[in-house]
Write a structure and sequence with these properties.
single chain, 371 residues, Rossmann fold, 2 domains, 14 strands, 19% strand
Length: 371
């Protein structure tokens, strides 16, 4: 087993071995030793680089066992969406396979507050939640942070872009003296200011985008008229048995495309941020368990979702930001697998091709006419 893994507790070594993890990713190799020492961490790393385990493993190595009775939170993980919180909770459960006595709780919107308070009555060692809902629990005094010594800001750039800066600050400032770990896929002035405000002499880790893009991914971009996209999409889907993650820019387009595919016999469902959380969870479970071939989504799915079986990512729409495109493409070719990424560009978007060719030097751009 890899030297870095051998330094972990036997329980975590076994949990990783059970998941066939034989070697840590680069961000994990860099962050885990310093995080286990209790240092603040600033990590910028692209989607798919393994950031979640880079903070979960140190948390599980550092927290104390509280035994029976009420457990007070020792670590709080702030994440921008309910889906990401649930994904993180599932990662923790996988790591806890051989560890007893550690409780987790997910505190997000989309759940009745009173029911959530009742289910959280016995507390938890690790709390994963959205900043706004954690603030709600702080105001009700149902989240009591007196023993909380670790705070993680996960997908911090997304959290700030969604307007959670004040709520995140309120949570951080309510904690006693603690270790702070900030993880972000991108770096900008807002992230710099956040890190300077809340991190004390942090260890800095930066993983370049090129390490992600160097994976075994085949890129193909199509110049195609808007009214020809559906025909091109069906042509691509009809020739692949792989699971497909299909991205659209808006909820309306996502619903429309998925419904069209269903009408033409394709196995497709859609998820987005405005749908019922229970239905979204059920659809994601179907996709992870290979009971669904095509998942049509808005960008709610482009961050944080670990769906290793995805062989193909299709961007039905070109996002405004190149970073968003990279995050979408990061859903394929994970964990050493190969994958294919398709992008549909309208003719008026061809001015973006030089920018795309700089980021993806090996792309093939095809002018497509569907007859």
């Amino acid at each position: 087993m890899n030297n870095e893994i051998e330094h972990l507790s036997e329980e975590l070594q076994k949990a990783l071995a059970d998941q066939n993890v034989r070697e840590l990713s680069e961000v994990q190799k860099q962050c885990i030793p310093y995080a286990c020492q209790g240092l603040d961490i600033f990590a910028q790393a692209p989607t798919g680089s393994g950031k979640t385990y880079a903070y979960l493993i140190p948390i599980l190595e550092r927290i104390e066992r509280q035994g029976k009775g009420k457990h007070y939170p020792q670590a709080v993980i702030l994440s921008p969406t309910r889906e990401l919180c649930l994904q993180t909770a599932e990662c923790i459960r996988r790591l806890l396979t051989n560890i007893e006595g550690v409780r987790t709780a997910v505190l997000t919107g989309g759940v009745d507050m009173n029911a959530q308070v009742r289910s959280f009555a016995k507390g938890a060692d690790i709390v994963i939640g959205t900043p706004s809902r954690i603030c709600d629990h702080l105001r009700r005094h149902t989240f009591k942070p007196k023993m909380c010594r670790i705070c993680v800001l996960d997908e911090a750039d997304v959290m700030l872009s969604m307007g959670f800066a004040e709520d995140a600050a309120a949570v951080i400032e309510a904690l006693p003296e603690h270790q702070t770990m900030l993880f972000s896929a991108t770096y900008n002035d807002a992230i710099r200011q956040l890190s300077e405000k809340y991190l004390v002499n942090p260890y800095h880790c930066q993983i370049k985008e090129e390490l992600l893009l160097a994976q075994n991914t085949k890129y193909e971009f199509f110049l195609v008229n808007e009214n020809q996209k559906l025909d091109l999409l069906k042509n691509l889907l009809s020739s692949t048995p792989s699971q497909v993650l299909l991205f659209c820019n808006t909820r309306r387009t996502s619903d429309f495309v998925s419904a069209h595919l269903q009408e033409h016999g394709f196995d497709s469902q859609t998820i987005h941020s405005e749908m019922d959380p229970k239905k979204r969870k059920w659809i994601m479970q179907q996709f992870r368990e290979h009971q669904l071939q095509i998942l049509t989504a808005t960008d709610v799915a482009s961050r944080g979702l670990d769906v290793p079986a995805v062989g193909i990512v299709i961007c039905y729409d070109m996002p405004d930001s190149l970073d968003d495109l990279i995050h979408r493409f990061g859903r394929t070719a994970r964990a050493g697998r190969s994958g294919t990424a398709y992008l549909f560009l309208r003719p008026e978007q061809k001015t973006r091709i030089p920018e795309l060719q700089k980021q993806f030097p090996d792309i093939n751009v095809t002018k497509k006419h569907i007859r």
